């Protein structure tokens, strides 16, 4: 495994959240669908998913996936946790990042809430440069997970309420200082641009918050 402490540079904590109205499925069913057909939720024109032979219920602990993207961005990951309402992956050697990612769903105030939470450092010096200075890797990741959230909303049979909320924190390297968890409440959006998300006004120096709106109700 390639954990955050194996990476290079600062630790990035990102939370993607979409609140869904009118869903005709529950959290467990949505996560089950995602585990059975993970490929359905990613932007197929730029991302491909490779897995081994899966069981009937889909991804489970110890299963491995390869997220294949254009350029040097291939991302091998391994399932380390599978519960009815969540799936957690950890990066493997060769991934552009070092850390973990969790997908989860729950019901809240009559809505279905789907979240993707990442804790990761750049996997090496090149990725650190591309992520922190050129922002190339950051924008690739941003687009992928925003569209994943919108695909989850579409798969649920509902519609996003207020777009996709994103909260980003740039933190000291792992082990240097304690990290405070994000509040449970959904972050407010600071910047909105039609159909695309952009960094918050404070960039990566603290907490960047923005919102991506759905184009014409199309989740893919």
Number of strands: 10
Give the helix tally: 3
Assembly type: single chain
Name given to the CATH homologous superfamily: START domain
Q: How large is the share of residues in beta strands?
A: 35-45%
> What name is given to the CATH topology?
Alpha-D-Glucose-1,6-Bisphosphate, Chain A, domain 4
What would CATH call the architecture? 2-Layer Sandwich
User: What structural category arises from helix and sheet content?
Assistant: alpha+beta
Mean pLDDT: 74
Total number of distinct structural domains: 1
CATH first level: which class?
Alpha Beta
Biased composition (Basic residues): 208-220
Protein name: DUF1990 domain-containing protein
Biased composition (Low complexity): 177-196
Region (Disordered): 172-220
Key attributes of the depicted protein:
3 helices, 220 residues, 37% strand, Alpha-D-Glucose-1,6-Bisphosphate, Chain A, domain 4, ten-stranded mixed sheet, globular, alpha+beta
């Amino acid at each position: 495994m390639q954990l955050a402490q194996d990476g290079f540079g600062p630790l990035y904590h990102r939370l993607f959240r979409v609140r869904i109205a009118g869903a005709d499925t529950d959290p467990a069913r949505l996560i089950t669908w995602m585990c059975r057909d993970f490929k359905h939720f990613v932007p197929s024109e730029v991302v491909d998913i490779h897995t081994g032979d899966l069981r009937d219920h889909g991804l489970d602990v110890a299963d491995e996936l390869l997220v294949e993207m254009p350029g040097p961005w291939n991302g091998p990951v391994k399932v380390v946790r599978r519960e009815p309402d969540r799936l957690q992956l950890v990066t493997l050697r060769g991934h552009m990042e070092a850390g973990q990612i969790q997908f989860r769903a729950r019901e809240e105030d009559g809505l279905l809430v789907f979240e993707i939470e990442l804790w990761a450092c750049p996997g090496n010096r090149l990725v650190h440069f591309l992520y922190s200075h050129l922002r190339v890797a950051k924008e690739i990741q941003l687009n992928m997970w925003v569209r994943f959230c919108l695909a989850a909303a579409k798969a649920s049979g509902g519609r996003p309420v207020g777009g996709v909320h994103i909260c980003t924190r740039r933190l000291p390297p792992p082990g240097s200082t304690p990290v405070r968890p994000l509040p449970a409440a959904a972050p407010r959006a600071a910047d909105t641009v039609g159909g695309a998300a952009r960094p918050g006004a404070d960039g990566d120096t603290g907490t960047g918050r923005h919102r991506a709106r759905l184009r014409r109700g199309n989740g893919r």
